[in-house]
Structures are given as structure tokens and as C-alpha cells.
Amino acid sequence: MRTLDDIYEEYDFLEGDERYRLLIELGRELDAMPDALKTDATLVRGCSAQVWVYPMGEADRLHFLADSNAAITKGIVALVIAAVQDRPAADVAAMDVMAALARFDLGSQLSSNRTQGVPNMIALVRQHAARIAGG
Fold first, then answer.
1. Cα 70 to Cα 110: distance, rounded to the nearest angstrom
2. pLDDT score for 46
3. Which residues in the chain come in under a pLDDT of 50?
4. Taking every annotated instance into account, which residue ranges of this chain make up the domain Fe-S metabolism associated (predicted)?
5. Predicted pLDDT of residue 16
6. Rounded to 5 degrees, what are φ and ψ at 22?
7. What is the CATH classification number for the domain harbouring 129?
8. Where are the alpha helices (DSSP H) in 1-135?
């Protein structure tokens, strides 16, 4: 998976529909998430589309799987995951992911329908990380 800095470098260069295409591409680059992991416990509440986030790995290096039934939403969750992927669980639990994503200015780039679930995606990621960091 690309780093958030690499993604932003490309995102900043693009405009309008090209940014949508980049988000869709990011979603396609996510590691495949088996259907068996798409459960109530991994479902992100409050999103207009269905979104699932599942943590793997150990406390010293978390790796997340994520998926959505909507292409752009899947790209948005891929952006969230890029901010936290393969970091220590304690760091992810304490991280201000919204601040890390602020430069993408998603609120002005996408409809409120598409971005309303972002805080919930972040909350679930941080909740998983806090649980794993706590042992």
C-alpha cells in the first residue's frame, strides 16, 4: 500500500473527477478482505455505504483489512487505512487520523453523504488499535 504522503502528492496534482478515480484506484489496491470477516463487529456504523475494517497483526505492527460495497467509499477507507497501516497499535490508538487526512480536504471534494462516515471509520480503527495495544 502507498504511503499517505505518496497518495497526497498525486492527489494534490489532480482535480475533480481525476481525484475520484484516484480514490477508486486506492480502493482496488486494498488487500482482499474475506467475506467471513465482514461481520457486525467489523462493520462501520453511520456510513451511507457498508464499510468493514478488520485488524490483523500484533501490538507492534497492526495491519488492517478493509472493504466497502461502494467504490468511492472503499477509496476513502483506503485513505484512512493508509494513515495507520503497519504502525504500532498504541500509536494508532493515540493518533489524530483526522488531522493526518486534513490536507486532502475531503469535505469540500466529496459530498457530505460520502464523508459522513469518515469519523466512524477512524473511531473503529482506533478502537481496534486500543484493544490490541491493551493486550
1. 14
2. 87
3. none
4. 15-127
5. 85
6. -65, -45
7. 3.90.1010.10
8. 4-13, 16-29, 71-84, 89-94, 97-101, 106-109, 112-115, 118-133
Q: Per the structure, how many domains does the chain have?
A: 1
Check residue 86 and give its pLDDT.
95
132: amino acid identity, one letter: I
Q: Is 15 left (phi over 0), alpha (psi -120 to 50) or beta?
A: beta
Gap between the Cα atoms of 52 and 37, Å rounded: 8
Dihedral (CA of 42, 24, 32, 6) sign: negative
Cα–Cα distance for residue pair 29/126, rounded to 1 Å: 22
Its domain, for residue 17, covers 4-133
CA dihedral 54, 42, 25, 63 (to 10 degrees): -10
Residue 61 CA to residue 120 CA, distance in Å, equals 22
Is 81 buried (19+), middle (13-18) or exposed (0-12) by CB count in 10 A? buried
What are the angstrom distances between the C-alpha of 125 and each of 21, 44, 53, 64? Answer: 24, 9, 7, 8
Q: Which residue is catalytic, options 4, 7, 44, 47?
A: 47
pLDDT at 135: 67
Active site (annotated) includes residue 61 = no
